Amino acid sequence: QVQLVESGGGLVQAGGSLRLSCAASGRTFSKYFIGWFRQAPGKEREFVAATSWSGGWIYYTNSVKGRFTISTDNAKNTVSLQMNSLKPEDTAVYYCALSPRGTITDSSYDYWGQGTQVTVSS
């Protein structure tokens, strides 16, 4: 059974940094893609970043390019999202998700974690 567990959320001031982690278990993930999505109160869930487990394919939404970095640790089955220069508009619940293909479409992701709250104060 696939399980995704996020950690690393919290409260940070604008301009600060956080590092989110997604620990995956339950199968071999080498042919899968991991995405990070976020959902702010009253808004639809939106794509943030995604990577293949090999790291050979990576994609970011425009609003986080240059500030966020997604990376994988294959030995630990963990995907991290390093978030720098955080802005109040980054405040949301962040979710990691698993897909058999590289895509920004959330409906293509079959497994989801429970989410971790990120709050950026101004």
Give a structural overview.
This protein has 122 residues and is an all-beta fold. 0% of the residues lie in helices and 51% in strands. It is built from no helices and eleven strands. The protein is globular and about 40 Å long. It starts with a strand and ends with a strand. The model has no long low-confidence stretch (mean pLDDT 96).
Radius of gyration (Å)? 13 Å
Assign a percent range to the helix content. under 10%
Mean pLDDT across the residues is 96
Class by SSE composition: mainly beta
- H/E element sequence: EEEEEEEEEEE
In total, the number of strands is 11
The description of the largest β-sheet is: 7 strands, mixed
N-end to C-end Cα span: 40 Å
* Share in β-strands: over 45%
* Unreliable residue runs: none
Shape: globular
Tally the helices: what do you get?
0
